[in-house]
């Protein structure tokens, strides 16, 4: 008897929850690889080995799937920032953690970052964009800077400006590092904090991180 052909393979039966999760994972991968406009509902269905009506049943179409994928990635990254900044520490340590959170996410969840950092579709199907995500993170950093400004006698109203500048710098460097991956993320984070914490007038010649991630034995 001949081997069973690929077309004869039965489809994997899943619960509704499992199928929804599978479609989200497939959508995340395709939107990251091809972008929103270049990804078709036919391709999404084929990659998931389902019919097009199944995609419509769960998400109402490509627009709905894209919106949920983006919202999910935004929440994942925001949760990382919230956890890192909630641990407390010196202003420099908090800046280091914020920079490393984004670089860790880029390294570990590259597809998710590609989805977030791509231009939003022209149809405006999702309110979750990279710029809105960065705005959320900047508001968290603003509270930290505000307390430090009060302690040092600076104008607290300027904390919003500085938080946007700092987070924006990290976000743009993250997009650049996505394509280069060099130097390593520890070194990138050290230079980011060097500039933001010390300023151009007091740059260290060979910056390093004062805190070290758990399990990192150091150089």
Describe this entry's structure for a reader.
The protein has helices at 16-34, 41-48, 52-59, 62-86, 91-108, 110-117, 130-152, 159-180, 185-198. With 219 residues, the protein is an all-alpha fold. It has a domain at 71-201: Tetracycline Repressor, domain 2, CATH 1.10.357.10. Helix 1 (16-34) crosses helix 4 (62-86), helix 4 (62-86) crosses helix 6 (110-117) and helix 7 (130-152) crosses helix 8. The longest helix has 25 residues, at 62-86. It is elongated and about 60 Å long. The model is unreliable at 1-6 (pLDDT under 50).
Helix content: 55-70%
Q: Can you tell me the CATH superfamily of the domain at 71-201?
A: Tetracycline Repressor, domain 2
Classify the beta-strand content into a percent band.
Answer: under 5%
| Major β-sheet profile | none
- CATH-defined topology of the domain at 71-201: Tetracycline Repressor, domain 2
GO molecular function, one term: transcription cis-regulatory region binding
Keywords: DNA-binding, Transcription, Transcription regulation
Protein name: Transcriptional regulator, TetR family
InterPro entries: DNA-bd_HTH_TetR-type_CS, Homeodomain-like_sf, HTH-type_TetR-like_transc_reg, HTH_TetR, Tet_transcr_reg_TetR-rel_C_sf, TetR_C_32
Task: Set down the secondary structure blueprint.
Layout: H1 16-34, H2 41-48, H3 52-59, H4 62-86, H5 91-108, H6 110-117, H7 130-152, H8 159-180, H9 185-198
Which characteristics define this entry?
transcription cis-regulatory region binding; elongated; 9 helices; DNA-bd_HTH_TetR-type_CS; DNA-binding; 219 residues; Tetracycline Repressor, domain 2; mainly alpha; disordered N terminus; TetR_C_32
């Amino acid at each position: 008897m001949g081997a069973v052909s690929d077309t004869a393979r039965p489809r994997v039966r899943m619960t509704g929850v499992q199928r929804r999760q599978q479609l989200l994972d497939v959508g995340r991968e395709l939107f990251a690889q091809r972008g929103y406009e270049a990804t078709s509902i036919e391709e999404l269905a084929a990659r998931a080995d389902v019919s097009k009506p199944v995609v419509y049943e769960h998400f109402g179409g490509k627009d709905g799937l894209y919106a949920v994928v983006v919202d999910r990635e935004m929440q994942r990254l925001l949760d990382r920032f919230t956890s890192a900044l909630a641990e407390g520490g010196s202003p420099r340590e908090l800046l280091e953690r914020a920079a490393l959170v984004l670089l860790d996410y880029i390294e570990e969840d590259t597809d998710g970052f590609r989805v977030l950092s791509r231009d939003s579709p022209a149809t405006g199907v999702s309110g979750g964009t990279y710029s809105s995500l960065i705005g959320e993170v900047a508001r968290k950093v603003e509270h930290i800077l505000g307390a430090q400004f009060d302690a040092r006698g600076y104008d607290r109203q300027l904390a919003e400006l500085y938080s946007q500048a700092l987070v924006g710098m990290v976000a743009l460097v993250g997009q650049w590092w996505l394509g280069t991956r060099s130097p390593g993320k520890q070194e990138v984070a050290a230079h980011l904090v060097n500039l933001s914490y010390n300023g151009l007038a007091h740059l260290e010649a060979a910056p390093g991180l004062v805190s070290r991630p758990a399990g990192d034995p150091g150089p």
